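User: Before I run my own analysis I want an independent prediction to cross-check against. Here's the chain; please return only the structure tokens and, at the end, one sentence I can use as a sanity check.
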Amino acid sequence: MNGNVTYYFGHALTGQGVKHLYKEMMEEAELVYFLQGASTSKGSELLKELGYFYVKQGFAVEWFKHALLEEVVEAVYVKGCNRLYVWASEWDIEPTLLGTKHRVMSFYDCLEDAQLEKIGEQLANAVQERTAWRDKCIAKLNQAIKLHDNWEVVTQSCMNWQALNEQVENLKSEVFQSIVLNKTGERTHRLLGTLTPRGAENTVESITKNISTRLMIKGKPGTGKSSLMKGLADEANARGLDAQIVWCGLDAGSVDMVIIPELNFCIFDSTEPHIFNPQDGRLGDKIFDIGQHCALTEEAELAIAEVRACYKEAMQDAMGYSKRYAEAEYTVRRLLDHCLSASLWREKTASLFERLTK
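Assistant: Structure tokens:
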């Protein structure tokens, strides 16, 4: 019987820079393959082939998509055997456990020197252009986060925090009841989404497709959504339950979702830019409304309207820069693709496809 695939983003363009969680996932994995080499479409094809290879053996597989290029996969995590395959070269991650759980495979020798010399200057220009557009995008996202922080200051001044705390305590009692497990609760980390050339995107439907209870938080910026979810994760771990933190794709320090697998439960931010509402036929879908505790004054409404307009303009600019960044990234990959030796590539990758028994 075949396994299944869950989709995540492998990295996100945030106001604090490019965020990825591969170091955290390396701790989670029992075996990590560091695939090192230049960025090519062949690398993504290899990772997809590995994913399908394990799915056909019945394993659940997580695919980690590129933030900019819709069809590109940059890592695969195989659950059950807990193997992580990651195209490691551009993420500043290095093997530290060689000889045990870390294995390295380099693909730089699959590039043909004669072909590289032909496109060397063009490649250097494309790489330089890619860096410039990436930096412009991140700078605009940083501006957007600062504006968002100003938005939050206004809403926070209008919050009834005591009422929210009471609502959260009632939620904890309802979710956890008297459950305490005789083990240490584990914590894992994933990304919810990112800004792409097509706008803000996420993989919520894929992440939550097999979760029976989905709590969708409704509330204004700055009203405690992220803190609420971090608190639920802490409570789960304290009770011996595992918790998965799914981080925001704009603000690197903010949480957008928490999953508690042993309770088949998740809770996530369902406001802009990822609005979700209960689906017909999913009995476990519920709204958790914290917006009821925020009573905006007329003055606050006017202040927010001004900030919101500037925030949307900054995000629109960032999206434009991300599109140019994606175009440069595609150019780099197209140039490098023409320099690959197909025979060396086949020879190098054959050993990765080892049959496993679940």
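Sanity check: Residues 159 and 294 are 4 Å apart (CA to CA).
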